[in-house]
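Posted in: Structural Biology > Protein-Ligand Complexes

Title: Requesting predicted complex, magnesium ion in pocket

I'd be grateful if someone could produce the 3D structure tokens for the following input. Sequence and ligand are given below.
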Amino acid sequence: MIKNKKISKFAISIVEELQKNKFQAYLVGGCVRDLMCGITPKDFDIATNATPNEIRKIFKASRIIGKRFKLVHIFNRSELIEVATFRSGVDEANEGNLVTDHSGKILRDNIWGTLEQDTFRRDFTINALYYCPISRKIEDYNSGINHINKRKIVSIGDPMKRFSEDPVRSLRAIRFSNKLNFKIDKDIKNAIYKKGHLLENISNARLFDEFCKIFLGGIAEKNFNKIVSFNLSRYLILTDSNSSDFSQKLIKEALKNTDKRVENNQSITPGFLIAAMLWPELLRKSRSNKEINLRKFFRSMDQILREQQKITAIPRKFHSYIKDIWVLQLKLHSRIGKQPYKTFKHPRFRAAYDFLLIRERASSCYSDLGEWWTKFQKNNSASQKQQILNLKDISEENSFKKFGFQEELI
Ligand code: ATP
Ligand code: MG
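-- Reply #1 --
Done. Output follows.
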């Protein structure tokens, strides 16, 4: 049923090598699920009964990573394959290798187990399929194949307990159901409603990883809508989804834009989305009397990034990117003298211009600004000069305070 042609040769060679050394080894998880659904997997994970140290000994180009959840990375020049040792996941007396907190959340999970035990600690039945590319057999202890055929996301074990152990499973259920067009089992829906709030205790680093998987995979808008319908957006984004009409439209437009870029194989960055998602909040904090107070604007930028950081980490390298896009919005509104040339030369001009277009799309007020900049980029220097001269009300243009569309300032 599964075509080995679609599997990374490097991954198959690792399975072979482990088996030659008398260990069990399988492809597992998302890659098997995707292959069964006719989707080309983006990466390949392997599960084995070899311990991390034993794996390390067999593969020179490898390293052990993680503490909470130890894994081995095996790499060649172009690929990196994750190899995990079977875990038992049982919560009986152990030497501190499986640790949970008061809410039942698993803090550490490093007790080795058998293949069968390993299947039960996975999140959903469709993610618990083990494929041996040599015998071409699939191990399926949890009716995963049946649920793929029925197009259902089903939890392994009681989702109330499983989602307390690891609240991120709520977001994962939503993500997989959208990606595969599978229905979410009723029990899981209930568990999301009851246990979703536990996402508050998840580390910001882990939520940033999940944020990227949710919003940079090509179905950001669809994911966002479902996350809002389960009332979980606050665990990913600072701005409340119930806020102004404009801010909701802005987020939607930014997500649509991201999805389109993914479809066209254009570059994408979480920085752009975060800049868009936080923009209404930045304006809200910078407003005084329906105008933007520049002092407040500049002061609020770091403050808002810090607040978002409490929810999802934002790696350092994105901070200046986000702030550049924000500050350039002010500059794009200022079209006199030498300013447009300076703005145009800025290394982040293109991203800022894209963001301006998104703001315009989200606004119902008329604005000629995006169009003006579209022309400015195409024109030769004589026409650019004319464009600047053509602006009628120079004094108004001169004022930063006039920046922003009316709706953004309400
Ligand atoms: P994708 O890579 O498309 O997000 P995936 O299913 O491969 O999907 P990974 O996060 O790469 O997801 O995890 C690989 C496998 O590890 C999963 O298929 C699942 O079996 C198991 N797994 C991952 N995260 C969890 C979790 N939070 N709880 C239980 N099992 C998990
Ligand atoms: Mg994966």
